[in-house]
C-alpha cells in the first residue's frame, strides 16, 4: 500500500509539472457506426465523431492531452497514439492486450498523456482488428509558443491522409481470411482524406504549403506525386530532416512525411496522386489502383487537371533511393545524437511463415496449412484475459515469458529464394515472448527480412521510442562490413522503418521509458499472423523512471 501511495504521488507530481509547462488539450471521441457512400455503394463503417477520417488533434510540444473515448460501436476498441513516446504513460499507448484490455461496446476510457520532446506530424488510430481502416486521424504537434519551425513558415498547413477503401466490413474481411488461413481480400481503392477521387485542395499561386502526409492504409506502401511540382521533405515521423528535394515520395503504412510545396506553376489544376509500391513480385496480389486529389490554383476553372506520370509499382530502386537519401537534422529541435555504447545487440529475422492447420479444420493456405508470420521464428500471440502491461506491473506470471531470443534459432541464407518453401524452416511456434531491457540501456537491432514464401518490404513500428536508422541494404546483413556504412552523423530518426525487400535495416535506440512496448509489422495482414514481439523495459529506480499505477478506469478483459 505504501508503494502504491508513493507511485501515485510521483505520478501526480509529474502530471502537475507537465501541466505547468503546457496547456491541457481535451477532446471527446465518440466511436460509432456511420453510413457513407464510396464507389457508388452505401456502406456502414466505424468512425470517430461521425467523421471519416476522424478529427485532427492540434497541440503544442509540452501540452497534456486528455481524450475521453466512448465506445458506441458494436466492436471492442482501443486507440493508439502512433509515435507518441508515452513517457511514464504506457497505460495510454493503446495496443489491445499489450498495454490495455479493449474498451467494450457501451463503455469508456480516458487517455491521458504529455507530449514531451516531440513536434511534427503524428496520427492516432484504432489498434485492434482492422478497425484502423476507418478509425484514424491526424495528430499535429506544433512547437511551443514563441518557437518556430527550422524552415520558412508556410502559408498554410494541410493534413493529407492516404488510406485504402474496402467494399465490405473490414472486421469480417479480416476474420474470413484468418478463418481460412489465407490472406484477406484486397482493398478496392486508395483514398486521399477519405475520398477515392474527389478530394480537392485550393491553393494560392506563389505560396508555399506544408503538406503533412500520413499513410493510414492497412497493407500498402505508396508512391505520392504532384503533377509538375517538386516537393521538399522537411520531417519524417515527427523528426526534422535535412531538407531533401524530390518529385516522388515513398511512404509506408504508419509513417508520416512533411513536405513543403511551392505552388509556382501556371494557373491551373494538377492532380496529386498515390499508387502502390508493391515490393513483392506478382505472385503476391495487391490493389493496383491509383487515387487522385485535385489541386486547384485559386481563380482557375478548368476541369482537366494534369496527371503526373506514376512509377511502376515494383520500382524498388526508386523507392530505395528516396528512403536512403533522407537524413536527420543535427542541431535542430529535439535532435538527439546517436548513442555510441551499445548494451544489447539483437539480430531479428522478420517474415512470413506457415502454421499447421488445426485438427478438424480446413485450411486454404499453402500445402493446406495456415499463413503465419514471425520474428526470430517466434510467432507472437497476444493474451486474451489481461494485458501484458498489467501482468508486468502486478508481477503476474503465465501471461508472457522473458525469453525472446537475440538471434534466430537456426542460421541460414536468409534471402535465398531456393529456401522459400523449405518445410524444415518455415514453420514457427506460437508464443508470447518479450525481451527484457534495463532502464536506459542502448539497443542495436538488425531487422533481417527472409525469403520465406515471398520476399517483400516489411514496415516495422516500435512503440514508445524513436530510433536512429544507422544503415539499410539488400541481401544478408554482413556484421563485418556493413557496420562500416553506419551513419553516426545525421541518420534519419523514425518510429517506423520499411525493412528493404530481401534486405536489412539497423536501428539503435535508448530504452529510457519503463513499460511494455510493442514491436510489430505495420502491414495489418501480417500482424494477426504473428509478426510482432515486445520489449519489457524495467523501472530505473527513481520516481522519474518508474511506471505509475494504472488509471482507475482502465478497461478490464
From TrEMBL:
CDD domains: CuRO_1_LCC_plant, CuRO_2_LCC_plant, CuRO_3_LCC_plant. It is found in: Secreted, Extracellular space, Apoplast. Its cofactor is Cu cation. Its main location: secreted. GO terms for biological process: lignin catabolic process. Pfam families: Cu-oxidase (PF00394), Cu-oxidase_2 (PF07731), Cu-oxidase_3 (PF07732). GO terms for molecular function: copper ion binding; hydroquinone:oxygen oxidoreductase activity. Belongs to the multicopper oxidase family. This is Laccase. It comes from Malus domestica. The lineage of its organism: Eukaryota, Viridiplantae, Streptophyta, Embryophyta, Tracheophyta.
Amino acid at each position: 500500500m505504501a508503494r502504491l501511495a508513493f507511485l501515485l504521488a510521483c505520478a501526480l507530481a509529474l502530471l502537475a509539472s507537465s501541466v505547468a509547462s503546457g496547456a491541457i488539450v481535451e477532446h471527446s471521441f465518440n466511436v460509432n457506426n456511420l453510413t457513407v457512400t464510396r464507389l457508388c455503394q452505401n456502406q456502414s463503417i466505424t468512425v470517430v465523431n461521425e467523421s471519416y477520417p476522424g478529427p485532427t488533434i492540434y497541440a503544442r510540444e509540452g501540452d497534456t492531452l486528455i481524450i475521453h473515448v466512448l465506445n458506441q460501436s458494436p466492436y471492442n476498441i482501443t486507440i493508439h497514439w502512433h509515435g507518441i513516446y508515452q513517457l511514464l504513460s504506457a497505460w495510454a499507448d493503446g495496443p489491445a492486450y499489450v498495454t490495455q484490455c479493449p474498451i467494450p461496446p457501451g463503455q469508456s476510457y480516458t487517455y491521458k498523456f504529455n507530449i514531451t520532446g516531440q513536434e511534427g506530424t503524428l496520427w492516432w488510430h484504432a489498434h485492434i482488428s482492422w478497425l484502423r481502416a476507418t478509425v484514424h486521424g491526424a495528430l499535429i504537434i506544433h512547437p511551443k509558443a514563441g518557437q518556430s519551425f527550422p524552415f520558412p513558415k508556410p502559408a498554410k498547413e494541410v493534413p493529407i491522409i492516404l488510406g485504402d477503401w474496402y467494399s465490405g466490413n473490414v472486421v469480417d474481411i479480416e476474420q474470413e481470411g484468418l478463418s481460412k488461413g489465407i490472406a484477406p481480400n484486397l482493398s478496392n481503392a486508395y483514398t486521399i482524406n477519405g475520398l477515392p477521387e474527389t478530394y480537392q485542395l485550393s491553393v494560392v499561386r506563389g505560396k508555399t504549403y506544408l503538406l503533412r502526409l500520413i499513410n493510414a492504409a492497412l497493407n500498402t506502401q505508396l508512391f505520392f506525386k504532384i503533377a509538375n511540382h517538386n516537393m521538399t521533405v522537411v520531417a519524417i515521423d515527427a523528426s526534422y530532416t535535412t531538407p531533401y528535394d524530390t518529385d516522388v515520395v515513398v511512404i509506408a503504412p504508419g509513417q508520416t512525411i512533411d513536405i513543403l510545396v511551392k505552388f509556382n506553376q501556371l494557373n491551373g489544376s494538377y492532380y496529386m496522386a498515390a499508387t502502390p509500391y508493391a515490393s513483392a513480385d506478382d505472385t503476391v496480389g495487391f490493389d493496383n489502383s491509383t487515387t487522385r486529389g485535385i489541386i486547384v490554383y485559386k481563380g482557375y476553372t478548368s476541369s482537366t487537371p494534369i496527371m503526373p506520370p506514376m512509377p511502376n509499382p515494383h520500382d524498388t530502386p526508386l523507392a530505395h533511393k528516396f528512403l536512403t537519401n533522407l537524413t536527420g537534422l543535427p542541431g535542430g529541435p529535439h535532435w538527439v545524437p546517436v548513442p555510441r555504447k551499445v548494451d544489447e545487440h539483437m539480430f531479428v529475422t522478420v517474415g512470413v511463415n506457415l502454421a499447421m492447420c488445426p485438427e478438424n479444420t480446413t485450411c486454404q493456405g499453402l500445402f493446406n496449412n495456415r499463413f503465419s508470420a514471425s520474428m526470430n521464428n517466434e510467432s507472437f500471440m497476444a493474451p486474451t484475459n489481461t494485458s501484458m502491461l498489467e501482468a508486468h506491473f502486478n508481477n503476474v506470471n503465465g501471461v508472457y515469458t522473458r525469453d525472446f531470443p537475440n538471434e534466430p534459432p537456426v542460421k541460414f541464407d536468409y534471402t535465398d529464394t531456393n529456401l522459400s518453401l523449405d518445410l524444415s524452416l518455415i514453420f514457427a511456434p506460437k508464443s508470447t515472448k518479450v525481451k527484457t531491457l534495463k532502464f536506459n540501456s542502448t539497443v542495436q537491432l538488425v531487422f533481417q527480412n527472409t525469403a520465406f514464401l515471398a520476399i517483400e518490404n516489411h514496415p516495422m513500428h516500435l512503440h514508445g521510442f524513436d530510433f536512429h536508422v544507422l544503415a539499410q541494404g539488400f541481401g544478408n546483413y554482413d556484421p563485418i562490413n556493413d557496420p562500416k556504412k553506419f551513419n553516426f552523423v545525421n541518420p534519419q530518426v523514425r518510429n517506423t522503418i520499411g525493412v528493404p525487400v530481401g534486405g536489412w535495416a539497423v536501428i539503435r535506440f535508448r530504452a529510457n521509458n519503463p513499460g511494455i512496448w510493442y514491436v510489430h509489422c505495420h502491414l495489418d495482414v501480417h500482424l494477426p499472423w504473428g509478426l510482432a514481439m515486445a520489449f519489457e523495459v524495467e523501472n530505473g529506480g527513481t520516481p522519474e523512471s518508474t511506471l505509475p499505477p494504472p488509471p482507475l478506469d482502465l478497461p478490464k478483459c
